[in-house]
Protein 1
Amino acid sequence: MYEAATHLASARFISHSTWKWTELQMKTGGKPVYRYLYARPRPSYLGMPDQPAPAAVVPGRGRVGNAAGRPLGLAPSGPGARQSSGPGAQPPSAPRGASHSAEIQYAMGNLDLDKRYSWEPADYEVSRVMQGYFVNFIKTGSPNGPGLPEWPTYRADSNYQRMRIDVESHAEPEAHRTRYLALDGATARP
């Protein structure tokens, strides 16, 4: 149930509307369309000496404490709610993927400016690849170029390929097309 709710929330928040925009651009834009899924989660949060860590909201557990273990915001409530601080506290779950907009720092190549995260060599490689794609697209209208995995256009005759940008970037078929078509039908106006 948690996974289904997560997928629905993600689709309602951003992924369905992005897919819809991609579909419309493909059908009416007259230019090649390139779609990507950014999949690299940010590394461990180091915090800042003068700021508390951000609170996390964990389904079924409400807002949880900061890195120092101090509670922030609302405590979980209701039957079966788990404590987020104090005896028997459970830390928030690890991220299940990249959060919305996490790729901005990678695309701009400014990881070093953000001291809150424990950047790893793999993060810098993902940033290099993403910057290469963006620069090539700006210059030529295609993200492809030397030293980068081939990024196919998003088309029906190529199984709606998208680029999965991560440590091992690669092209893959659109994984949730059936879901988006169903959501599209459910939200269509008569």
Protein 2
Amino acid sequence: MRAVVILARLTLKEATRRRAFLVGIVILLLFLLLYVLRLVSEAQTGPRPVPIDAMRVTPLLAMMRFFAAVLAMSMAAPTLATEFERGTHYVILARPLSRAEWLLGKWIGIFVAVTAMYVVWGILAALTAGLNEASMLLAFARGAAVGLLYVAVFMTVTFCFSAISSATLATGMGYVWLFLGWSEGGLRSTAEVLGAGGRPSAIWLMAADVASFLSPVSMLARTATTTVVGSVSFLERFVPTVGFVPGIGEWRPLDGIWPALHLTLGLALAIVICSRRDV
């Protein structure tokens, strides 16, 4: 375990030197700009405190999730692929360190780097949304915590691709996987359009369900939104509760359970691939 922590620290330092981390700084400036625009608006019209609602908070959470996932995927793609290509992993693995520990150390290091940036974005987003009460901030924090699961899922998928391909190809396949999740809404709309007798097309609905399970974007969006809007705690959100969320459908217990299983299976698959790879 000590070796994993040391490798995670080294990976964290390495991640802060990459160009992708500079992209995170640029995104931070974007959130800072949104906050400045809010201050300018308040200076002209005066403050207007409004209770927390999905229409104000959901777009900010969606931006945070998406940008953090892209940042994590960009950092994860070259992590394994580059070391496999150069053979530098042999230097590390010559020491008492298994490939599973090596991968976990890399994974933790990148996740911590992205999480640190994500927290700063979240602070600026909360200020931009005008969340000045403890209950509002707590609800926002719950939704943001779900966003970290979103980041972890797609970062892990990219780790799997990085273990079997080049860094460029791993990045591209990771983005395709992310787009697959975003396509679910379009597939469901197509099912409604192509349906007959007032019933949606079963084939297109099946395609949407497959996309949802392979890339649980909508599941995590529903969980994040219902966590913010609902009054129950984050852990209680994983039992049947609340109803329809505008724009992304009805929340189900599976929406909270499957992404966690997806992450676990993805991490296990990445470890298996790394353990069996010869070069």
Protein 3
Amino acid sequence: MILISFVRKRISFCQNLTLLHPKLLAFELAKLDGVGGYSGWRWIFIVEGLMSISLSLVTKFLIVDWPSEATFLTEEERLTVAVRLKEDVGSAKMDRLDRQSLQIIIKDWKIYTGALIYLTINTCGYSTALFNPTILKQFGYNASQSQVHSIPIWGTSAAVIMLVGYLSDRIRHRWGFVIFGCFFSSIGYILLLNQHHSSLRVKYMALFIVNIGVFIAHPVTIVWLSNNLAGHYKRAFGSAFQISFGNIGGIVASNLFLPNGAPLFRAGYGSALALTVVCALLSTVFMLALDRENKMRDAGRRDYRFNLCQAELENLGDDHPDFRFTK
């Protein structure tokens, strides 16, 4: 429900706020090393875990499913939110889950392609947390100091991504930004693959390039799929599947950057570079397929669906002939 009622334009902004705060918090929590007989890293998991659990209990009562149920808003504010949501998701509907709609959801290639695209870039996103500290330690920083000195990297990434999010929405285009992010991060991976010939400054610059590139593409892939899924149930299933499947990237990343590969991580950087290429290729296929479908609808080759009964026609979601996909 939250994914459905959340305006997608804010995804990049809110996601990037999460890049900064954990680093400062982790730095302070690491100072609790030895308190209560626990290591500093254990305190990070304990405190942040308890915060997540506590907030989830509170938000259960604060977050509502629909604007009409938000008692803390005035009637005018509820109407404004409803209009914004309609502008965000369009008029295509799938608000009834029946056999027909379930088949449409399960057979939709976009959901599985979008999830695979997200898996590739999300693996690269998870991996940055694994190799960033290794390079920062080469400056002589300890683990806690590495957390603090990674903040400029995340801060720069967040600023760039918010700009990209604004531009992407302004011109209503996604593919080009995913490709740019993949291309930009690949430059950083190439530099890191050749780091034995590089100075510490070049390595540090490479961290900025990789992180900026990866986190440009990362939120756009989420929004892009959501843009192209219309209807209550289809967006709910598609978004949930994409995020769930994509989070396998955390497991993949942890097996690419193993301790015995430090500090060069040749296999890890090589694999991450390959994943950015795969992400770019899949995104291109995705864009071309969406463009082809739009042209077919413009030519009237999906107008036969207008012959369906009214109940079925109004529950087609993005299969409705009037719906146009975002490239």
Protein 4
Amino acid sequence: IFFRHMNNAAAAGYTPTATLTEGVVSLSFVQWIEVNWITLILDAFLICLSASFSGLTLGLLGLSATSLRVISRGGSEDDKANALKIMTIRKNTNLLLCTLLLGNVVVNNLLSITLAEMTSGLVGMLVSTASITLFGEIMPQAACHRYALFLGAKAVPLVKLFMVLMYPVAKPISMVLDCALGKDNGDVYDKKEMQTLLQLHAAARQSEITCDEQMLLSSALEFPDIPVSSVMTKLQDVFMLDIDDKLDNKVKTMLWLTGHSRVPIYDRNARNIVGMVFVKDLILVSSSEKLTMRDIMNQYPRQILPPIFEHEKLPDVLKLMKEGKGHLAIVQRAHIDSPGDPFYDPVGIVTLEDVIERLIKDEIVDEMDVYTHIEQRDRVDNKRPMIPINTFSQPTDPVLNASQIAAIASFLFQSCIRAEQLPNSPEEESALKAKVRELVAQASFEEVLMPDPDGLGRQASLPPEFDAGEGGSPQSEAPLLYCKNEPSDLFTLILSGRVEIVTGEDNFKTYCGAWSPLGLRALTEGTFTPDFTARPTETTKYLRIPFSLYRAHIPQPLPEDSPEDSMGPRMSASHEGQRLSQGLLQDTPELSSHAYPTSPLSNQREVHP
């Protein structure tokens, strides 16, 4: 029995060994394996092929046709070249898929068979499973997923070779898939998906798309679906003029304050809009002519866009406005449910600015806007003086109102008064603003009435008897603002009218008009001796500030200030003065005519020839 087992074991490839222990013979058999290097090389080659098929299946098919076209047109030079190479084999998606999957299946089966022949059934299964899973699936797919474009371009010649070898089998299968599933045209996103994609790109750290760019692009995608009714200005919020309104100074002031470039005109009823006037056309029209809006519309006929319905989309309105037919259109609503014939009722207006604001999804606030959103009545933080330059040339009360005080204070800071002590905190800055307004409110507001011989409301020139003699001294009772070589401690700001200045040994004459400062040295030197004579030649309004009143509100500069700081005020405001004056008008609504005491120096003078 012993020898028979030894012979059978040796014949089966086992090495038998016998051990004699305490009279008992023990037999053990150790299997030996003959190393076949050709088989090992074949297995390594099959593992590489399995890794290539598996990785390229994920890498090449993971690149959609759309992404390849995007990269080939807008990527870097290397990415463009790689994308163009991959597109040559990516055109027929189903044929590429069948080639890679068939090759992967064939290679994995061969690998399992060769590994099983080298070992026993269980050991071969474990070795082949581990080899295929680790080296043929996980590692290559991870690499090709991360570097799909680069590795896919490098493997294009190999893939083309296998496509040719497997064409007889892969082509019929791919034709069946094309008929059943259709061809792959790439990923196509709708508007909502594209907006989500933009949001994801803007949120990514490595993205070059900013949040503002993302918002602008998203707004452009929404633009075609926006109706006119969502951006129009409602009719009750529209500034309009009656066709019989006269173009007087009051209407001009209203046009200036509103800041509109186009104004709709209605006839009797605000819902009966008959036309439009351009504010720039009114520059050539004098208030003394007393023309009505009807006359102006006849003189300057302006084309207006045909009425549009509130349900129309913004791209259609933008197309109309781009054709040059107008930048303002009336929005109307059709009433078809009521008995009788349908009628159309205007509900608002829409301008080119409204359309563009919705396109960029942001408000365009220019220098003349009063409200950011007219529906919400949120005022624009506008730093400019909201007062016309010709305000003081019109009949006014002997006391300055709140808006006039704010405008004059802003002008003094920006043009005349240099900040001598800069505030160190917002509280000090607010206190200084209040002092400047108090200074203007308590200053002397005076008016000199000159004759108007033609009675047309124009400011008459000075009659001959008011002219100066050889010595430059006036020969009438016209008040002198300044007299040559006579000391004065008054600063004067001309608000309207015309003032004659006589200076020099030759009595050289010059003239100054509205918003002209005189006697600047009085604000820093106190009493100064003018080298000129100044007197009104027309009806003139002016503000006078004595040095004592000025110094009571504006503190004196510190002694350690630089020599430049003690040179007196300059005609142009300093940077610090501009900064301080920016907020002078912010609190204007809080002012009233009773906010400050009326100056006892305020008076009105009348000169008779």
